Amino acid sequence: MAGTADPDTRRPFSLSTVIARGFGVMAGNPLPIFGITFLIGELLLLLLSYLGPSTTAATRMNVEYPDGGYMAPVLALLAIALGSLFVYLFLLALLQGALVLVTLAYAQGRRATLGESLMAGVAKALPLIGLLVLMAIAIAFGFALFVVPAILLYVRWSVASPALVAEDLGVFAALRRSADLTKGARWQIFLLQFLSLVAILVLQSIVEGALEISATASAARTTPTIAELVVTGVIGTVTTAAWASLQTSLYIGLRDWKDGPEESTLAEVFA
Hints:
Layout: H1 15-28, H2 30-51, H3 57-60, H4 71-107, H5 114-145, H6 147-156, H7 160-167, H8 171-182, H9 186-217, H10 226-259, H11 266-269
């Protein structure tokens, strides 16, 4: 890791550079970025949602204890639900780790292959799961107290996942690293996150409105058409890829702003 840059000489943190790098990653690495996002973020998670336990599963599992109880099917349903949750978190962590590697490679002037990105995601999946769970619990607690603490925590920890992957940190070390990197630029980070969220919601609302108009025109139809599924999948892929690319680009921008240009290579990070 490069040494810490002198606070008196470093330039102001630039959001425009972060945004340009984020979109540059997608333009320069379309196959890894969009391929991984579609395969994991759309296709596999969609299949998991269909194959996971439903609310009527307990009524279909009518194996009882000899005394007439229903504990066995309830426990079986609970095991299936927990298993599905773990698979869901693993896929999310795999997606995040892979997309972080693609963005890091772009920042170093090269293109990461699809296989290399997926392997990096697998290698970092378990610690990323721990990080995601811990952040979700803390932020949910912040929302329970008041909205502002949750927002502050999210901004403070906004680059914890890229830091964990790029610097091979543990969960708590990644949270501390993110807090250090974001210090002094949290208003800019909040603005970036807010604008990104608004852009995603507006795009999704436009698409959902168009699909509702289509569904109204064919009121007798109860299942989505192939065109609707394709459009929904494309929008989901683009928004997820853009969000992940911007988050990692934010980490790179903050790291370079605080520490100076990175000297280590990806080969060292994932050795």
